[in-house]
Structure formats: structure tokens, C-alpha cells
Amino acid sequence: MPRYFTKDHEWIDVDGGTGTVGITDYAQGQLGDITYVDLPAAGSAVKKGDAPCVVDSVKAASDVYAPVSGTIESSNEALEAEPELVNTDPEAGGWLFRVALSDPSELDGLMDEAAYQAYVAEL
Amino acid sequence: MSDVISIDDGLEPIETLTLPLDAWHRERGGRMVEFAGYWMPVQYDGIVAEHLWTRDSAGLFDVSHMGQLYIAGDGVEAALEAVLPIDLSTLKPYAPRYSLLLSEDGGILDDLMVTRWESGFYLVVNGATKWDDLAHLRECLPDEVTITHLEDSALLALQGPKAVDALARIAQGDVPVTALTFMKGGTFRIAGIDAWISRSGYTGEDGFEISIPAESAVQIADLICQQSEVKPIGLGARDSLRLEAGLPLYGHDLSPETSPVEADLLFAINKRRHSEGGFPGAGRILAEIASGAARKRVGLALDGRQAAREGAEVYHSNQKVGVLTSGGFSPSLSHPIAMAYVDAAHAVPGTTLEIDVRGKRLPARVVSLPFVPHRYYR
Questions:
Q1: Is A35 within 8 Å of B329 when comparing Cβ atoms?
Q2: What positions are modified (N6-lipoyllysine) (chain A) (predicted)?
Q3: What is the DSSP string of B119-181?
């Protein structure tokens, strides 16, 4: 299952027509303790670059941008009780939402893991 | 992903300066951010862990960005009373007192601590405002009064219930530091170095503020952190601790647009000055004392986990009645808290209000400050 990354530190796993989105380990480290995640409602439409989700840490609220356009299929309800999963397991159990891709060609502009690691190393 | 809101002091310094403990923070994994024109550690292990450690044990805060001033000379008392609403006739030596630098229209230019030393007064002012404060004081104080900016002094705060255990082990004086009570101070020696220590702070906990020569800051910070009770703590936890303690932060909860009556800081207008006046802004402030201010700084407690931040608007029904000046998740209480200025009619504890966060209305209720009880050693 291919994983893509954005310069804004989101990741997206693509399986068929559905992408699972989260923030990277680098991002959670920068944000610090996550206290709340404002998750998008299923059925809502998002455009690439929209901010359907907000992650609250003790010090700040941060937008999470949609890496692709589409329709929100579901969000990670486990985060309602355990928002700290975004800190402890950001790239698996701490996923944020699933989106049905409307334009898979948008993935072409994203980075693969190697490119993202190289990008983060420069920050 | 991007920060919508982050901790900053609203300044755009020309060149970010370094403090005496800069390398010391970096060696300990402090994540450095620009604050008040300086590089300062926002966190080491994480804000929540540092916050809870301070409430449980003891945390060392580097607050060397703050301005330390010494003001002395002929007529210094009358001169200071002309710029501060303080009653110096009741200010005993070595006992810090909270005061306010006020503008002519009664707005707050800064909040500060004033201590009577042997022949003059020691002031601690906010880092982001210290240059403006110096300019203001130089303009307002007569030539016979000299203002010395103690730029060669560092300032540390050791805060938490076990701060006294750690400090008593390493500080020597005519009396032990355990003899100090809240808002009392004295001269001590740490590792043979002179230190001005007061039992005071900005977390709501028992603790001390320690002024030392900048050249000895690394040695003393090392010694303090070698005590098993102590860990270094960053600005992030300093902010969440002071918010829980209901203590206002200048530039956020206090500004030139807020008066001491609105800010609920009436205790800083000392009793004699209520009747005598004669301080900047006395006209407006005494009128507000007599008839009440139109709005008031209050605490707001939120349910759930979603925090509301500075700038969020406060509503009663569909009427805007106030605005948040601080807000965040409380690590000690595990729910969000905030400070806001709200119309006096809605400022009574128990009042139910709503806070607009990105179009969503979060229920909140007015509560008495502090959110977390103070544990000062009196």
C-alpha cells in the first residue's frame, strides 16, 4: 500500500480509492502533547489544501490539510477518548480520517517516504 | 499542518538575543523559540510532563529575559509613588510587592514586582516591555533618581512543593531559606556566590525567585538541577501553570487598553492611594473603583477537551459579551480553561456563556480564579 507525504507533514496511505490520512512523527514531535483532535464529519467534501481537521496541543491549535480532494468516509473515533494516540502512534493507530479520492492524479505531486525523510532532514 | 496560534509575545525583534543559559538549555534538549526578543526554551521533555513535575516536585525556570532594575537617589520614594499606585510607607524591606506601571489614561503599561532594598528599590519587569519601561521611567523620574538596568544579572525561578527542600540544601544565609514566607526575601549565598532570593513566583506553587550574577548562572543552574527534586522547565509549562494559577500575562491578559479595575487587580492599588490618588490614570481608576468597570477579567472553565484560545469571542445567547485573552488545556485539571474580559453583567461566577471556536460554540462557565488553588507558604 503506497504511502505519500506532504510538505505540511501529513501522510496518506492509499488503498484502492480510499486514502487514510494522519500527521507524521516529525509533526507530532513539533506539536508536543496533543490534547484534542477536531475530526471532520463523514460525508463532507474536501478539496486538496483544505483544513478539515484541527489538532490541539497544549500550546497551539494546528490545521491538518487534506493531501487530496474527495469525500470524508470516516474519522478515527478512538481519538475522542485518546487524543494522545497522535503522539504515541502517529503513523498507524493515530490516523485522523479516511477520504474517498476524487482525483487520484493529485497524488503525483506528493513525496514518497525517502523524499520526505530528505525534506525533514533539511528542516 | 500549520500553527494557527502559537506562543509569542507579539514582537518582531531586529536580532534575537541570547541569554546566559542559552547553551545550557540546548545541551539539555530545550527546544528554543524566540520570546521577548530572546532565544528561550519552550519545552524539554514535553509541556504536560514538565507542568505536572512542577506541581508535584520542583521545576527550574530561566527568566533571565525579565528586566531587573535598581532605582535609587534623593526623593526616590516620592518619585516612584508618582509612577506606581503603590504605598511605599507600608513596604517593609526585602518583601516584594506586586505593582503596575500605568499610563495617564489608566491603562496598564506593565506589571512588576517592587522590593525595598537598603537604599533603593529593586524592580522586576516583563522582558517584552523592559525597554519601553526603562524609557518611560527615565522620562518620568527626576534627574536625582538613577535607574540601573542590572543587565549582568540572571534570574531563575525554582517552583513547586519540593523547591524548598532543594534550595535549603544549597543556599546559605543569616537565616535558612526555610525561614522565608511567601513574598519575603533576603540575601543568601549559593556555592559561595551572592544571590538575592525571594519566596515568590508565577506558578501558584511555593517557590523562589533567585537573582544571581550572569557569569555564575551556569554553575548555579547546574547545582540546582543536580538536586533530585528539580528538572528544568520551559516557557510552555510556565504559561500553563500561571494560567491555572489565574495569574495574568502581560501582553495577553493585561495591556495599555485594560485598567487595573477591569483586570481585577485592585489589590495593586494600595489602600492609601485610593483616597489620595496622585498616580497615573487615577482619575479613571478611582472612578471605576467607585462605580465599577464595564467589563472584568474572569476565569472560564470548559467541558470536554477542545480548548479555546486567545482572541476567541465570548457570547451570551447571540450577543457578544467578551473576548478570551488566554486559553488552553489545563494539564492538572484535564479540561480546557481560559481567561477572558466579559461585560460586568456576565462576570459573576456560575454564569453560563459560550465561546466561538472556528464557528463552533463551546459551552463555558464563569469560575472564580485561581483554577488550581495556590499553595503559597505563608
A1: yes
A2: 59
A3: SEEEEEE-TTTHHHHHHHHHHHS-TTEEEEE-TTEEEEEEESTTHHHHHHHHEE-SS-GGG--
